[in-house]
Design a protein that fits this description.
The protein is of the alpha+beta class. It has a domain at 1-116. 26% of the residues lie in helices and 38% in strands. The strands form three sheets. Strands 2-1-5-6 form a four-stranded antiparallel β-sheet, with no helix packed on it. A four-stranded antiparallel β-sheet has the order 3-10-7-4. The protein is elongated, with a radius of gyration of 32 Å.
Length: 183
């Protein structure tokens, strides 16, 4: 008997392309925001499964670590119109992000594991957060007052005084002066 080890896989969409990924895979995708070492979550999961069984893709999350931000190989763009002496040559290197897939699995299990850590972090600085909360309503009232004055300002503006002889239309072209014929 052969025992096959099956790992969870997913098909994700990012940058307008689709990728089949499993934990440990390295892929190059269209540029994503972040720096090397940052963790990103690929949220648009189209299909998920394990072995030949398909799982519910809405419950699966794919997390990845950014390895590097790089450029792909150069693509040469050459345009020519024969018999017209027209030649244009340009190059392009697409921005890429190299990713290492760290986990493909249930998003609910990951959220439950992450939730206690967040609650502990919130419980410790609760006393420190109490003081800024009192000041927060005063700050929100000030921008509202500014918004009221901002609305009034455009109505109060007057048009700049026009110069003498200036009109709304562009100046008309003057007809060239007629030269007197000599006889």
């Amino acid at each position: 008997m052969r025992m096959e080890v099956t790992t969870m896989f997913a098909v994700v969409r990012t940058g307008g392309k689709q990728y089949r990924v499993a934990a440990g895979d390295k892929i190059a995708v269209e540029k994503l925001a972040g720096e090397a070492g940052d963790t990103v979550t690929l949220g648009d999961v189209l299909l998920a499964g394990e072995g030949d069984k398909i799982a519910d893709a809405s419950k699966v999350a794919v997390s990845a670590e950014i390895i590097a931000q790089a450029k792909s190989e150069k693509v040469v763009v050459f345009k020519k119109r024969r018999r017209h002496n027209y030649r244009r040559k340009a190059g392009h290197r697409q921005q890429l992000t190299l990713l290492r897939i760290t986990a493909v699995g249930d998003s609910k299990a990951e959220k439950k594991a992450a939730a206690p850590k967040k609650e502990e972090a919130k419980a410790a600085p609760a006393k420190e957060e109490a003081a800024p909360k009192k000041a927060a309503p005063a700050k929100t009232a000030a921008p509202a007052a500014k918004a009221d004055t901002a609305e009034k300002k455009p109505a109060a503006k007057k048009a700049a005084p026009k110069k003498e002889g200036a009109t709304d239309k562009a100046p008309a072209k003057k007809a060239p002066a007629k030269k007197a014929e000599k006889k």
